[in-house]
Each structure stands twice: as C-alpha cells, then as structure tokens.
Specification:
three-stranded antiparallel beta sheet; alpha+beta; single chain; 12 strands; nine-stranded antiparallel beta sheet
Length: 410
C-alpha cells in the first residue's frame, strides 16, 4: 500500500476505496506502522511548530515553552494512537445494535482510514489562527466513517446514520478526555490550560481554538444524545440526523453565537447531472448515477458517469459537499507539485481560482485529472487507455465554466 495513494483515494473516492480496504489483508501492527503512526504525527508535530515555534498572535502574543511543547507533542501523539484503538473497540462493540457484524480488524481499518481527513487537518495547527479549518476537516472524517460502516461493519445502509452518530459522540467524548489528560500530565498544564475553561455554574466546557470559540454545553450534549437514542428506537433516521446536527452545531459555537456552519448548501444532484453529456472525447456514455445524502446536517451530493468504447474508458465524478467541499481538497489544492519518474508524471497547479491535480502514465495507458472549481465543486476524470491530453480535451464537454458559476443558496 502506497501511503500517498491511499490518502488520496480515501479522501477523494471513499465509496470506491472502502471495498478495496475491506478486501485487502492487514494486521493491527501493520496498520499502525504503515499508516496510523505516520498520519498521527501530522497534528502532533504541527501543533508543536504552531504553538511553540511560531506562536499565537493577536492582542497578546504567546508561545508555549519549548520543553512543554515537546512534552505536549509526545504525550498528545501517544494518546492519539490510543484513541484510535479505543474507538475501534467501540465501533466493534456496538456493531450488532445497528445490524452490523463484529470484526475487530475491520473496525480498526474503519477508524484508521476514516480518521484520515481529521489527522491531515491537524496541519492547520501550524498556523493557530487557522485552527478552525482543522475542525472542519474532522467533520469530513464523519462522512468517511459514514460511507465506510456499511462496507466494513456490514451494517444496513439505512442504519449507518445512527451508527455514525453514536461513533461521533463517543469519539468526541473520548477526545475530550484525552485532551484533559494531556493537560494534566504536561508541564504547566500544557496547551490545554490556555485553551480550555469550565463554568461551575452551567457545566459548560469551552475549548478555544485560536480564531474562534468552540463551546460544548454538557447538558445540551446529553439532551442531543437522548434525542438520537429515542429517534433510533422509533426508526426515525431524519430525527436522529437533526438531533446530531444540533449537537454538532452546539459544539461549533451555536450556543455562543460563534456559529461555524459545516453544512452550507450543496448543489442538488439533479443540477449536477445536467452537466454530464451523452458523450465526451468521442466516447459514448455507458452509465449515469446521481445521489444525494444528508449526514449529520451535512449535504453530500455526487454524480458519476462512465464513458467507453473498445479498450478506452473515462470515469467522471462530479462531487459537491456543500460547506465542507474545500476541506477534503485542502491537502493538495494549496500546494504546487512537479514530480516525474521513468513511468509517471504528476502535477499540481492553479489557474485563477481553480486547482488542478494531474497524473498520467508516460505510455498513455492511463491518466487522472482532478479539478477543484472556485465554488468548491470537484470534477474528476479517470481514464484507462487514454492519456492526459484526452482528459483535458474532455473537460470542457462537462461545462465546467457554467458549473463553476453556479451560486450557492444562502
């Protein structure tokens, strides 16, 4: 397994990647050594750089002392590895309650790969003022878990929403406990001492991400959990989703007026579908599907189409995740890349407000083109038996200029 390829696949093509993950052999030791331990280092190291080397600016500038920062980094890193294992135990234990099958290794795979977006989002800790983006990246991990549960834990798709809600709640509480443990064992109470506070009167716990306030009201959190449980007992997935969305909204500051909206308004799949023509690049359309989902108040819309003739195929994927569309692309859209070896070429670049990620085989046997439009819509073309020029030529046929101009509803 290539780390970069796996990260790219799980972020940009989760539905296609989960079956691959489910089928491939793995061991807990291998997952930790080759994937979890590497990605978990991202938020740990970035946090040390951001809080101890760069520092937090504003009215008052401060930096966490180097020694304290190093201890925070090591302790936080170790506890994050523990958290992933604990979460896998929870995922495995509750599987039967949602019609799933217990499988410890599958649960660890789910948590490990599902956490990819959140772990990579930890890079924003390097610039503490952008810390809220790391929170939004973690929300994309919620979607990854949602898409992975039916595949790895064999739960019915219609029960994946409630299953995800329980996992999110348990994960949030476990992360909060780990944060408090970090504060206790780190010198000078660690970073959490300056980032957290509790109210004796209300029982509220406030975690302050630089640049925003994330307020968690324990009473409302418990009420939301009870509403989710009651909705699940009635089989009312819509009510469960609304209750969980309210919980997330409160966690992101709705109660204090500092609302961070993870949902936005995704462009409807029926609208996205209109941009798929009957043929592109001289290849006739073979299949077309459009679907929309609402998970935890987050809308997820996607259109997929296949074009082919003889030994040439182009797979098209148009995706819009509303308010979190850019989060999944942040790992690549903000950088530039020129990579080439004897067999393959890879480029990441920008043109105006669009980001492009191109990969192609030099022998013309395959290519991939991913475009992030200015309004957050992602368009991906995956070619087999065709080169990168064919994908570039096919792109205008999808009406990307009109697609980029589609407004979002307030």
């Amino acid at each position: 397994m290539n780390l970069i390829e796996r990260v790219r696949a799980i972020l940009f093509q989760p539905r296609q990647t989960w079956p691959v993950i489910a089928a491939e052999p793995a061991t807990p030791a291998g997952l930790y050594t080759n994937y979890i331990a590497l990605l978990a280092a991202v938020p740990a190291v970035a946090g040390f750089i951001g809080f101890s080397l760069i520092g937090v600016g504003g009215i008052v500038n401060f930096r966490v002392p180097i020694v304290s920062g190093l201890v925070n980094m090591v302790v936080g890193y170790g506890l994050s590895l523990v958290l992933i294992y604990v979460m896998s135990l929870i995922v495995d234990a509750v599987a039967p309650k949602f019609g799933g099958q217990r499988n410890g290794l599958a649960a660890l795979k789910l948590v490990a790969y599902g956490a990819t977006a959140g772990l990579l989002g930890g890079i924003f800790s390097m610039l503490p003022a952008l810390g809220v983006l790391g929170v939004l990246a973690a929300l994309y991990s919620v979607y990854l878990v949602f898409t992975g549960l039916p595949v790895l834990m064999k739960c019915p798709p219609e029960r994946a929403l409630g299953y995800t809600a329980v996992v999110v709640i348990c994960g949030f509480l476990a992360a909060l406990v780990i944060g408090l443990v970090t504060a206790v064992v780190s010198p000078g109470a660690g970073v959490m001492a300056g980032l957290g506070a509790a109210s004796r009167e209300t029982g509220d716990v406030t975690l302050k991400v630089p640049g925003t306030d994330i307020a968690i009201n324990s009473r409302k959190f418990e009420e939301a959990a009870q509403r989710i449980e009651a909705a699940q007992a009635r089989g009312d997935s819509q009510a469960a989703g609304e209750a969980t969305a309210a919980m997330i909204g409160a966690a992101l500051g709705a109660a204090t007026g500092n609302q961070v909206d993870p949902s936005g308004q995704a462009i409807a799949p029926e609208v996205l579908k209109e941009f798929v023509p009957a043929a592109i690049g001289g290849l006739a359309r073979q299949s077309l599907s459009a679907e929309g989902e609402s998970v935890m108040g987050i809308t997820l819309n996607q259109v997929q189409a296949s074009f082919g003739a003889a030994d040439k195929t182009i797979e098209v994927d148009i995706t819009d995740h509303g308010g979190i569309s850019r989060i999944s692309a942040t790992a690549w859209a903000a950088r530039s890349l020129q990579r080439e070896d004897a067999e393959e070429v890879e480029r990441i670049y920008r043109k105006g407000d669009r980001a492009f990620h191109e990969t192609w085989r030099k022998d013309g046997s395959g290519a991939s083109l991913l475009v992030l439009l200015g309004n957050g819509v992602q368009v991906q073309l995956q070619g087999s038996g065709v080169g990168i020029e064919a994908l570039r030529d096919a792109l205008p046929g999808l009406g990307v200029d009109r697609l980029a101009g589609l407004p979002r509803q307030p």
